[in-house]
Amino acid sequence: MNSVEDFPDPELATEEGLLALGGDLGIERLLKAYQCGIFPWYHPGEPILWWSPDPRCVLYPDHFRPSRSLRKSIRKNGFRFTFDQDFENVIEHCAAPRTHGSGTWITEEMKAAYLKLHQLGYAHSTEVWKNGQLAGGLYGIAMGGMYFGESMFTLVTDASKAALYCLSSSLAAWRYHLIDCQVTSPHLLSLGATEIPRREFLETLARALSQPGKTGTWSPPEAKTLFIVQPGHRDHSIP
Q1: Distance of CA 104 to CAs 17, 29, 73, 97, Å?
Q2: Residues 122, 91: one domain?
Q3: Are 23 and 95 in a shared domain?
Q4: Is the pLDDT of residue 152 over 60?
Q5: Main-chain phi, psi angles of 234, to 5 degrees
Q6: Are residues 74 and 176 in the same domain?
Q7: pLDDT at 140 over 90
Q8: Strand partners, 133
Q9: N or C: which terminal CB in the chain sees fewer CB atoms within 10 Å?
Q10: 122: in domain
């Protein structure tokens, strides 16, 4: 791929969803990819691989299903939630090796690219705090009325689920169309995600990109006061 105009039609992707390889993670190319419903996903030592799977795993923001145990865990742990307060630390934790595997797909090149996107106001993090310490979180890209989820992590049981709960409720209040979950997993399906055909996803994406979104940094005071549950308090919905 030699320019940002070189992405093939997503309908030309393989059965697994692989559409193209090569190029770089330049800001202009990354933004163009997301606008076309395409995302990078590759491992160190590989060329950059660009994907557009069919079906697509998505989560409608108001369809997140918090279990009773998750609500109880949020109350018990006294989680506090913020946006964009520690993006670099969130992506570092997301890139760390997981207990079920030794590798990571978030390369140094990807971390640098998404940190730049964060500095430009496109990439956002959701942080979960317990006793003043980072307990979990997630990050993704927001454009128009679409949020493209990238990765999440947890250091305390249920912290990543709680982060997605906070994000989903916030995006629903802000009238976002979809959270793109990219690749289907039983875990995401259990939280309310679903699969839709790629064509439907691209049509929804086009509508979402036509509306204005929240630009710049998602910062306090709104982010800090949006969703706070302390031990002993009754559960409540996010405004």
Answers
A1: 20, 22, 28, 6
A2: yes
A3: no
A4: yes
A5: -70, 150
A6: yes
A7: yes
A8: 130
A9: C
A10: yes
pTM of the model: 0.88
> Residue 153 belongs to what H/E stretch?
strand 146-154
| CATH number of the domain where residue 207 is located | 3.40.630.70
CB distance 109 to 29 below 8 Å = no
Residues 27-55 have pLDDT tens digits of 999 999 999 999 999 988 899 999 999 99
d(CA 158, CA 83): 18
Distances (CA, A) of 143 to 36, 37, 159, 214, 227: 12, 11, 25, 8, 23
- Pairing mode of beta strands 146-154, 178-182: parallel
Structure confidence by residue, pLDDT tens digits, 173-228: 889 999 999 999 999 999 999 999 999 999 999 999 999 888 777 854 444 444 44
Give the tokens for residue 203: 């049509």
